[in-house]
Amino acid sequence: MKIAVLGTGGGARCHIAKLAELGHDVIVGTRDPEATLARTGPDMMQNPPYGQWLADHPGIPLATFGDAAAGAELVINGIDGHNAVRALAAIAGDLAGKTLIDYAVPYLYNPDIERPWPTPWGVNPILGVCDSDSLGEQIQRALPDTKVVKAFVTQEQATVVDPRSIGGGDHTMFVAGQDADAKQTVTDLLTSYGWTDILDLGDMVAARGMEMYAHMHGAIGFALGFGTHFGVKVVR
Amino acid sequence: MKIAVLGTGGGARCHIAKLAELGHDVIVGTRDPEATLARTGPDMMQNPPYGQWLADHPGIPLATFGDAAAGAELVINGIDGHNAVRALAAIAGDLAGKTLIDYAVPYLYNPDIERPWPTPWGVNPILGVCDSDSLGEQIQRALPDTKVVKAFVTQEQATVVDPRSIGGGDHTMFVAGQDADAKQTVTDLLTSYGWTDILDLGDMVAARGMEMYAHMHGAIGFALGFGTHFGVKVVR
């Protein structure tokens, strides 16, 4: 399938590599391709520069957000939560009629500091939107002609693309969104990633819980210790 | 152990019955014992009147919040989230030096409507406090001489006291709070309830994640259908 991944961060790289490995026709979108490739320092989350990563994963084209989305059948949003609505709304035409998977957490961004959050160990960064709204709902409102599906957001993307690395893969992935066919497309993709327990949480309002779970995910991660990978299984 | 349960709602009743069954010396606290026993209609959450329930569970004394707490070694807070801080602060002296388990979700209360939330099926009620604070932290700040432990909050109390009823009991319970001994007391109680996987999430700041998980719990519950019991297992 022709799949565009928007963003070049650590999470996006997990999907890019996995999709290429699965034989999909992957294209990557970034705000300014030349600037992305020219960068020599680490990104905001301390990932090595994308150009360096790309050297180890040759042959994956890089384009603007709009050009990447325009040619794709399925689009994965890997743009930081605080930039996502603005960046996606700007290419609404390129996303019209398509399925867009969003996995962003809407962490509050403070432009006055270099990192997006000044959070001590053990305290999760706070969200810019939660409780009575969610980033998933905001994106769906900004893109009324796009079938937005919230997914992937409840754990690290490295294990989203490799669920069997945790407990043999017997844990739960969640999807939410207004369009049943779009959710089926995402469910099929997740199945190809190795997921066996995929729970449809219903309409996009469920993105509130999926995004707010970031605090619980953080707390569990702090408890288990840095670098411990985990998932959650809905036992019923 | 002498244990006080504050509150007479559905969740409190689960703990009262289980603690009595386990042979603890249980006392129940309510704002106005006479009024509680005189009530003939269902409570806010449509539970049958407490007096009716008590007739099926004879011999469990009912006292004011303060009198119940005063004689107990361990106190369980089952007061609604929107009333908890005020009601507990009023009996701070009776709670001093004790371990207090809090399992409340701080759902926003609207005094202009009869029920605490006007929420359609599929949409979780919103929280009065979240993200940068939590009810657990508020209670600990209001009771500096009490060892507050957040626990039980991530699932229905009926299955908190009967974890083996879900998946043979292989799911995860969380505790958080500042005092290690208090958390051990709660962990011992949970073990007596049948829990085998109890994860200490660290300081009370983790109550943010535990309370905000209410949206995820709600979404999963809506997806599985009314009346389906479930828990979550941290797979690692």
Automatic annotation (TrEMBL), chains A, B:
InterPro entries: NAD(P)-bd_dom_sf (IPR036291), P5C_Rdtase_cat_N (IPR028939), STEAP_metalloreductase (IPR051267). The lineage of its organism: Bacteria, Bacillati, Actinomycetota, Actinomycetes, Kitasatosporales. Keywords: Oxidoreductase. GO terms for biological process: copper ion import. It comes from the Bacteria. It comes from Streptomyces noursei. This is NADP oxidoreductase. One of its GO terms (cellular component) is plasma membrane. Residues 2-105 form the Pyrroline-5-carboxylate reductase catalytic N-terminal domain. One of its GO terms (molecular function) is ferric-chelate reductase (NADPH) activity.
